[in-house]
Amino acid sequence: MFSEPALVGSFTADAQGQVQAVFPVDEAALPGTHAVQFTGWCTRIALTTVLVGSDALVASATSFPMWVWGAGGVVGTAGLALAGGHLLRVMRVPALPSATTTSA
Questions:
Q1: Residue at 61 is within a domain
Q2: 16/39 Cα distance (integer angstroms)
Q3: Closest to 39 in 3D by CA, of 3, 13, 5
């Protein structure tokens, strides 16, 4: 099981090559989807995913409400527009003539 690689056990495939396995998950595993890799004596490697935690726990740990994404997009877009406008204004300011002094 990946995220933090760990060996979770040895399992046997049936005649069709399918594996059904039940294995304990470390309590320190974070809620969410984790990759599981099956390797065998042949050259094939199979990958799948496993969901750790309940759906409600996983949803709260791995996603933000839609309004957060919308607010972040508005704030980010406004910030980029302000920064771009400031940069254009700074680039358009004419250079001040250098002060020259004459000695008599």
A1: yes
A2: 16
A3: 13
Q: How far apart are CA 59 and CA 62, in angstroms?
A: 5
Q: Which residues form the domain of 42? A: 26-69
Residue 34 within a domain = yes
Structure tokens at 65: 């409400």
Tell me if the pTM is above 0.70. Answer: no
CA-to-CA dists, residue 69 to 51, 73, 74, 86, angstroms: 24, 6, 9, 26
Map tokens 């099981």 to a residue: 1
35 closest CA partner among 22, 21, 52: 52
Paired residues of 76 in beta bridges: none
Maximum Cα–Cα distance across the chain: 105
Per-residue model confidence as pLDDT tens digits over 24-72: 877 777 777 778 887 776 667 777 777 777 655 545 545 667 777 788 8
Partner residues linked to 50 by β-bridges: 34
